[in-house]
Structure formats: structure tokens, C-alpha cells
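Need C-alpha cells for this chain, all 191 residues.
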Amino acid sequence: ADARAEESSLHLEAWDDHGKPVLEVDGLVARPIEADALRGGDGAVHSSLYRVNWVILATAPPADGPARLAALGDLDLAGVERRYADVAAMTAAIAGGEPAPDVVLVEVGGDAGGDPATAAHITVKDTLARLQELAGREELAEARFGFITRGAVKALAGDVPDPTQAAASGMLRSAQSEYVGRITRLDLERV
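Here are the C-alpha cells for all 191 residues:
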């Protein structure tokens, strides 16, 4: 890369490993900014055209009856009758004659220990591995996956999102573009 300062602007060029140019910026001007302007979460209300607004939607029940729900691990939710220790136990039950679930509910792990960055890395890696395992099972080709985080988003004033859960939710949001219509992210209150 080549960077030449000319007064208050910067010229930037970058090349790939083969010497081909991949980026050229003729003029990049940096202006000073106060550090306090970069800090967020001060509680100040700013006028904006965009706001986060949580809306509860009424949904009609499916025409062909209620969805068959299955939960993995220790997840305990009302209305979920089928629970399996892991994906292998669920697919074994399907092979034994049980109908495949319409929706598989999976709780995102939350206690990876260690420092927050390591915990987030481990949680995202484990969540991605679980998603890939589910999506790779032929028995679950028609199933949708509901990943449950706890406290991943700031839903109400005063909420402080859990960075580990937020990281996993962000990865799942990205994965929704790869597995269109198959992943739902559900964020519940912490217990």
C-alpha cells in the first residue's frame, strides 16, 4: 500500500499479492472529532427518522393444524412436547417412525466462560456448527430452525444486551440470507 499525505488529505493505493491494483483513493480527508462524540449510550434522545419499534403481530394458525415443534437440549418451553438431547437423538427418532418436526427450537449457549471476546467466539462457533448440522440432515430438509437467544438485543430502555448472545444473533442474521426462510431468531428475556 502507498499512502502520501498532501496537506490535510490522503492518497491511498493498494495491490493484491500479484501486483494488480485493488483500491485507489485519490483524496481522503480526515477531520478532527471529539472523543465524546463517538461514545454512545448516554441516554440522550435524538430526533431521527428511524426508530426501533417492537410490534406484536397477530398470526393465524396454520391451515393444516399446529406445527410440530421439537426442542434440543435442556430447552423447556410451553407447548413443546418433543424434546431430544441432541440432533443425533432426533434423527434417530425420525428414522424410527416419528414424523419430522416442522420447527426445531435450539437455545444458543450462553456460558462459554473466560473473557467476553473468547466467550463470544466460542458461542458463535458452536451455534454455527449446530446450524450446519441441522441444515445438513436430509430428514430435516423441510424443517425450519428457531434459534433462541436471551438478552441479545436492547428491547426496552435500560436493557443492556449480552455481547455473547448478540454476536450469535448477528451470525444467525447473516445465515438467514444463506438459508432463506429456514431460520428464525427469537430473543427472550434472560432467566
